[in-house]
Amino acid sequence: MTKLLLRALAGETLPTPPIWMMRQAGRYLPEYRATRAQAGDFLSLCYNPDLAAEVTLQPIRRFGFDAAILFADILLIPQALGADLWFVTGEGPRLSTVTSASDLARLKPADQVDAQLAPVYETLQILSRELPRETALIGFAGAPWTVATYMVAGRGTKDQGPAHLLKDQDRATFAALIDLITDATIHYLSRQIEAGAEVVKLFDSWAGSLKGQDFDDFAIAPAKRIIAALKARHPGVPVIAFPREAGERYVGFRAAVGADCVALDNSVSTDWAARHVQTEGCVQGNMDPRHMVTGGPELVAEAQRITRALRGGPHVFNLGHGITPDADPDNVARMIEAVRSA
Ligand code: CP3
Fold it and tell me: Residue numbers for the site described as Transition state stabilizer (predicted)?
């Protein structure tokens, strides 16, 4: 019996799509909040293999998703490269900034990230022992552009202004930063696969702010290099790429980077994606996470509409972005039931 997620990622059209949810382990779940309180802060939870495995398993036990996603964060890579990282409650991440060639020179080489990241590999080892046999295990990393936006600004930004500024004023330094993150990501994801990840996903949450040649240079080229290196080392391990808000650049993206599946955000029309993106291969998505808060008959109708619209080709059901802390867990159960009965 091949796991449902792996079948969809191999290009199979299935009567019922596999389902999982971005941020499925998170603050909307009381059991997550309890384990997080036990760990202390968010980063302590990420680096505690037993507790990180526990929160990864919680949504599997509660909802029976077809896949579990490693509990960690895309900003562990900057930290492993030597950046300071902390989270301010209610505000989000803060990092020491990289805005010049001399800042860049102070970071560690890409192959020296393991000392910091070893607990993440251990989390995956625990999960590959403990997950139900039908549940696929997904590892992940941030795509280089998105990780760079946080490293340059030292925090999340609405418009990624500081990263754009460095890219436009000192392209050589910016490109060298992208290269370093790319190399570290290849190393990190390779180790995740060796520790038990059966699928990997690249999160390019801010891909939509890259236009024209910048999109080719900083969204496509690094993803293509990461995926080619992973495919050479670990043939057969599928990759999901998520160029969030790429808009029309979703067309051709999967093939351009060599991924097995492209994840759609919720700004993309499902019918448009069925005609222009799914005809090229597997798609993931793309329900608006706001339905997990509002619920009601609209939730059921929307989950079934998406399932039916993408039934003609390979599809992985998911949200278009992460579930939010104010979501009602009962709505998640209703969404799953709606998809599986569509
Ligand atoms: O999807 C999953 O459940 C797997 C784990 C995961 C987390 N973050 C856990 C997390 C994954 C895949 C991520 C990815 C991530 N992290 C992204 C890319 C995807 C996206 O959402 O666009 C980004 C940009 C980050 C960086 C990050 N981490 C931010 C901006 C924040 C703060 C936002 C907030 O809601 O406070 C985080 C924190 C974070 N990462 C939480 C979780 C469960 C909340 C932490 C907590 O418990 O307080």
Answer: 73
- CA 342 / ligand 1 centre spacing (Å): 30
Specify the residue with its C-alpha closest to ligand 1, atom 33. Answer: 92
Q: Residues 284-324: pLDDT tens digits?
A: 999 999 999 999 999 999 999 999 999 999 999 999 999 99
Biggest CA–CA distance in the chain, Å, is 57
Beta carbons of 262 and 281 less than 8 angstroms apart: yes
- Residue 252 is part of which domain span? 4-340
User: What is the interface pTM, i.e. ipTM, of the complex?
Assistant: 0.93
Q: Tell me the best of 20, 22, 23, 151 to mutate to test the pocket of ligand 1, counting ligand atoms within 8 Å of each CB and taking the most.
A: 23
Reported as a single tens digit per residue, the pLDDT across 237-267 is 999 999 999 999 999 999 999 999 999 999 9
Cα dihedral 319, 323, 324, 326, rounded to 10, equals 110
| Alpha-carbon span 128 to 123, nearest angstrom | 9
Q: Considering its fold, how many domains does the chain have in total?
A: 1
Kindly report the CATH number assigned to the domain that includes residue 136. 3.20.20.210
Q: pTM score, two decimals? A: 0.97
Catalytic residue flag (residue 133): no
For residues 192-211, one letter each, b for 16 or more C-beta atoms within 10 angstroms of the residue's C-beta and e for the rest, the string is bbebbbbbbbbbbbbbbbbe
Structural contact between residues 186 and 229, judged by C-beta atoms closer than 8 angstroms: yes
